[in-house]
Specification:
Layout lengths: L7 H17 L9 E6 L7 H12 L5 E3 L1 H4 L6 H7 L4 H23 L3 E5 L4 H13 L3 E7 L3 H19 L7 H21 L4 E5 L8 E4 L12 H10 L4 H18 L5 H13 L5 H4 L43 H7 L48
Parallel strand pairs: 1-3, 1-4, 2-3, 4-5
Antiparallel strand pairs: 5-6
């Protein structure tokens, strides 16, 4: 993997000359910026919550969308690596993507920007240090956790990859061991947030919902207003039985993935079976019955020696095969388009209005700078989808 690592000088040059103009410049600095950590394992489905937060921040100066996946296409070898082996591209560009993410976070703190930090928490201690760094810089910190079972997120990884293959002939596949580390690391981070009161607001969301299932905030003394039960709420959401709608949707997607996997490599049936085994305890009985059986096949009776096969007839001559379409790898400009932030000119809202992010309570006040809505909301028109 190291052979694809850029030199420190080249990494910094690309960040300064390309990533900053495309993804960070033009946002309005704030007296009290709001930094939202959106915490979820790969495939957890963070889009709905991200849309909600992005819509609020885009109305008040824009925000920095801090996500290493947005930076990886700036690697000079990205297109070639995607064409050679899209399943390993993420591993090849991981070190440079993380370096760019660290530089982006330093830029956010230096310029006092609103930000959404896409965090997988493979290293909970490092995330705690980042939260404290934002606090020390004067930002209000919010931690929004995705309470998504492992089977759902692992299916999300595969489903996204298959959709990208169908759309452009190659895709971005998360390394499974990284996803497993993230799933465990998020629980550890929840413990740290509870014990250290690391965020002014801590919430847990289900996939596809914009209203939290658990929420807690700091009071005026810097202590939790309610019992610190973030980890417990997260574990409860991960282990709860699924609704009939969730179960049916999962199984329908799983059967479609199994059909699509037939044309791919031999590793896919085992991967899909592992996902199904993770889901079975949570599915409704009717939905679980639709999945392929994992029971071993009964022993077969002894077979008589087979008749030697008849030699096959020579194949007919076939015409030339149609050329395959050239893949269209993601470009840096496409990565910029995927960013959810739409920078806006102008300053804060006029006096007398509800305080927007960055103009509301100081850290520790307990009020949410981006309050959760009371029901599902549609996509914000100012945000571009991933």
């Amino acid at each position: 993997m190291e052979r694809h690592r850029l030199s420190d000088a080249e990494n910094r040059r690309i960040f300064r000359e390309r990533i900053v103009p495309d993804l960070l410049a033009g946002r309005v600095g704030q007296e009290t910026p709001t930094v939202v950590f959106l915490v979820g394992q790969p495939g957890a489905g963070k889009s709905r919550v991200t849309e909600m937060v992005a819509g609020a921040l885009n109305r008040h100066g824009g925000f920095a969308d801090v996500d290493s996946d947005l930076y990886k296409p700036y690697h000079p070898a990205y297109a070639r690596l995607m064409a050679e082996d899209d399943t390993l591209m993420a591993a090849y560009t991981r070190a440079d993507g993380r370096a760019w993410m660290a530089q982006a976070e330093a830029y956010v703190r230096e310029h006092g920007l609103h930000a959404i930090i896409q965090e997988t928490s493979q290293n909970a201690r490092a995330v705690e240090e980042k939260m404290r760094a934002y606090r020390d810089s004067g930002a209000r910190v919010e931690a929004l956790f995705m309470g998504v079972p492992q089977a759902m997120s692992n299916q999300g990884i595969v489903n996204r990859y298959f959709e990208q293959l169908a759309d452009r002939g190659q895709g971005r596949l998360t390394v499974q061991s990284n996803a497993d580390e993230s799933y465990a690391g998020i629980l550890e981070l929840a413990d740290r947030v509870d014990r250290g009161a690391l965020a002014d607001l801590a919430s847990v969301y289900r996939r596809g919902e914009s209203k939290p299932r658990y929420s807690n905030s700091l009071d005026g003394t810097g202590n939790w207003a309610g019992p610190p039960e973030l980890r417990q709420a997260l574990a409860t959401e991960r282990a709860r039985p699924w609704t009939a709608a969730e179960s049916d949707s999962f199984v329908s997607t799983q059967l479609r993935l199994r059909e699509g996997a037939q044309a791919l490599g031999p590793e896919w049936p085992d991967r899909l079976t592992r996902i199904e085994d993770q889901a079975r305890p949570l599915l409704t009985p009717a939905a679980a019955a639709r999945l392929p059986s994992t029971a071993p096949s009964p022993p077969q009776p002894p077979m008589t020696p087979p008749t030697p096969p008849t030699p096959p007839a020579p194949p007919k001559a076939a015409g030339p095969a149609a050329p395959s379409p050239s893949p269209s790898p993601t470009s840096p400009s496409a990565a910029a388009a995927r960013s959810r932030s739409t920078p806006r000119s102008g300053g804060p809202a006029t006096p007398g209005q509800a305080p927007p992010p960055g103009q509301g309570p100081r850290p520790g006040s307990g009020r949410a700078a981006v309050p959760p809505p009371q029901g599902p909301t549609g996509p914000d028109p100012n945000r571009r989808g991933r």
